[in-house]
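Anyone opening a protein record will find just a pair of labelled lines. With that in mind, the following record should read easily:
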Amino acid sequence: MSLRVFILAGEPSGDRLGGALMAGLKQLAPGVSFDGIGGALMAEQGLVSRFAMDELSVMGLAEVLPKYRHLKRRIRETAEAVLETKPDVLITIDSPDFSLRVARLVKEQSSIRTVHYVAPSVWAWRPKRAGKMAEVIDHVLALLPFEPPYMEAAGMDCDFVGHPVVAEPQATGAEIAAFREEFDLGESPFVLALPGSRRSEVARLAPDFGGALHRFTAQHPDFRIVVPAAAPVAGLVRDAVQSWPRGTVLVDPNEFDSVTAKAHKRAAFAAADLALAASGTVSLELAAVRTPMVIAYKFQWLTWQIMKRMALIDTVTLVNLVSETRVVPECLGPDCTPENIAARLNALAADPGAQLEAMELTMQRLGQGGEGPGLRAARAVLDRLRKN
């Protein structure tokens, strides 16, 4: 009898994880069949989505409220589909507000095994989420090597399967040469500036990033500034960098076909000498190509006050956490000023050695050079299914 999997993702990052996991399951369990919800990459692996994944890609209270009834109906419909089809396993990917509600309805009426891909960051804040999740999830697939003990302590099986960043393609020499030629960079050293992918992030960070880069280039006049903008905010970034140092290069993905745009982003990350980036998983993308970085982020006042009181960690940068060092400098909240950021960039330019070692260790611990995360995740799902 072939394996029957009901799998669901609610956003593009989940679709990428789901596509790789499905590919791994097809390799290890020929004849596996899929049902569920996903995007283009999961469709490539044979999933016919029950409805468009875009319906679930909603963030923020203001955006969710008008669609609340619709989302609630989709949760109920999805759970009913799982109960009706009786798969061997239900795999939910990230998007906990949707995924865990579906899993709860399924568990209330069945003993179908549930797997959740991407552990909640209970090591950072709100640790009680693990216990609540254990009420409806049997098995967790973790992206970070230190996460399994937190999930296991709450009563769930958990396997570290590697972070998807380790499987991302890296720039070739030809792509880097083409990128330098396209943007007239010659052999100039450059700082990569990454002020975020959301409008609110760009609006908050761009002025301080610009001020810091003015100070940095005053001391390092040979450096250029390169800004690979995220497609949805490229126009806002274009306006923001008008006041940045002269010669700042904006890489707007909307001006190129998707293949070229991705190649330019890969090349920019790989060829940069330093990076100034908003907080987020971008730190792992930079670590993957060994580009030393300064992380800076400004929060709304209330968010910062809550974070200060609830945070269980003293750093927000995954490179610091995975490598168990604190070599990636951070300018967060009130410390996110042009003066502080410039000082960290200057110090990093003078001595990037410790950070390069930490990035190397981080990538080793995340599985770079080993079996792909999708295949490892598939193996973990199948192994635990057999045992249970």
